[in-house]
């Protein structure tokens, strides 16, 4: 290991594998290490089914009722990809799509007043949605038209509203939208975790809604994609990419210390060997002294033998419960996948219910989501700390990723990846060469 590297990446979670791939493609000499024998870190996929029970220390000797155990690929932190989102752009740009196959998610839903409703994201759906009354629908249609036509560099499209200066709250008021309509728009289309966005300039929210709508237009049923055989395929795809460009991988390798001298990064020690480098990128478990706890996430992985009720028997879907609907500060997210994505045996469904912890009884906070599922055959609950780095890493050249949040999509994950890339290299990742058709998924 007595070699000098540009970048050493610690941990094979999805964020770290993406960054390893991007760094290798950018011409950096990369060493990628993980103390585990498997890819994925805390975002790994478990197979066969017995691994899920073992992971949660649940004794179950007879798994015959769940079909063939090897048909199961259970993601510990399942998340969907926006069809026109940043992660898909990264996959296309880097060519990782050649290693993966995706299938669209069948439906996107939102919870309102005790019921599940399909999310309207275009003018036609807005006019037929049961989320709004008759007088509300034309206003919402005008709102969506405004967003599609809005161009921040062309004031003739602004209709008197400057989204770079005026707040999203003012935008809702401009179209006289009902608070409940604003609620599902901000949380189920713009995908915010809470209402902090309301007082901020509206432009980011308009862009998020446009992304949702553009993603929906790509495949029709929902804006989301999910890889066949689960998310464990994603980090492996980026790992292959890194290897193609000369990256070196070491799994099952002890990582004993990130070595610094007088605040200056030297390298990474494993036993008596030190691999020298200019930059370290790692997940929080490799640098706990450089992280702070900013909250917790509670997740319940549920096995069902039926689809989520009131989703038109969708084989896969997302349901968002906006926080106001259940008297909370943070949304509850439900994601469902099944054998259509090759992650369960036939006739079964994997459902994740997740939220940001607010009380001393985290599992009880999931109740509004769990109550929507009907009979649950098995349930596995975990509470995880949300960790963030204490600094931006520029002084030490040690860049630590954030923990995975409660959201059921990858947009916040990609924000973190691209931010680390920017801080560690001094420049933004260049999307200018990105093609806009994901041929391999069509």
TrEMBL record:
<dbReference type="GO" id="GO:0016192">
    <property type="term" value="P:vesicle-mediated transport"/>
</dbReference>
<keyword id="KW-0963">Cytoplasm</keyword>
<dbReference type="GO" id="GO:0005093">
    <property type="term" value="F:Rab GDP-dissociation inhibitor activity"/>
</dbReference>
<dbReference type="GO" id="GO:0015031">
    <property type="term" value="P:protein transport"/>
</dbReference>
<dbReference type="InterPro" id="IPR018203">
    <property type="entry name" value="GDP_dissociation_inhibitor"/>
</dbReference>
<dbReference type="InterPro" id="IPR036188">
    <property type="entry name" value="FAD/NAD-bd_sf"/>
</dbReference>
<comment type="function">
    <text>Regulates the GDP/GTP exchange reaction of most RAB proteins by inhibiting the dissociation of GDP from them, and the subsequent binding of GTP.</text>
</comment>
<dbReference type="GO" id="GO:0005829">
    <property type="term" value="C:cytosol"/>
</dbReference>
<dbReference type="GO" id="GO:0007264">
    <property type="term" value="P:small GTPase-mediated signal transduction"/>
</dbReference>
<dbReference type="InterPro" id="IPR000806">
    <property type="entry name" value="RabGDI"/>
</dbReference>
<protein>
    <recommendedName>
        <fullName>Rab GDP dissociation inhibitor</fullName>
    </recommendedName>
</protein>
<dbReference type="Pfam" id="PF00996">
    <property type="entry name" value="GDI"/>
</dbReference>
<dbReference type="GO" id="GO:0005096">
    <property type="term" value="F:GTPase activator activity"/>
</dbReference>
<comment type="similarity">
    <text>Belongs to the Rab GDI family.</text>
</comment>
<keyword id="KW-0343">GTPase activation</keyword>
